[in-house]
Request: fold
Amino acid sequence: MTPHTFFCNKSFDLQVTFDQQFHTSVEIFSLKQVHSTNIVIIDEQSQVESIKQLEADSMLSNQKNICLAIKTADCLPILMFHPKGIIGAVHAGRRGTEAKIIAKVLVKAEEEFGVKGADFLFWFGPAICGKCYQIDKDQNIYFDLIKENLHQITSVTNQQPQVTISPICTLEDDTHHSYRRVGHAGDSNWSGICLS
Ligand SMILES: [Zn+2]
Reply:
């Protein structure tokens, strides 16, 4: 059982990347992301087109050969894998992070699949870094998505997470889409995980 993770930028399309990797058409599940803490479980009955209509910001699944995909442009994409065959994809922006989305996903994973948060591997994809993400100009306050989400995982599992963190800051690296750089007109970077 192998997890495959993909972090796309301006030059990489997720569908094309997946089709090349697997030489077959992989169903790509995505959501109507709304900065919530809603979690969707993808099972064998799930349909791509109906899941796409759901207002939610994370998915968990025990299915193989499907992709869970999240789009971001400065927010933090988190992909996760549990060796018992569970995968997850999480959209953790400031609002989702403040509402503790990753902690809620870990609790849900245990309820739904009986797996412990401590055994997950995590990938934090490209996101705006803590030095760039100023949230209050007057008071000069910055928000660190990576630090906050690491802290929340640790608070659930009581141990340091096994995590791979992208060194890319989406605002500084213009090969990536960035909301703060171009505003609403811009596109998003796709991140996806698939189990085979
Ligand atoms: Zn930065």
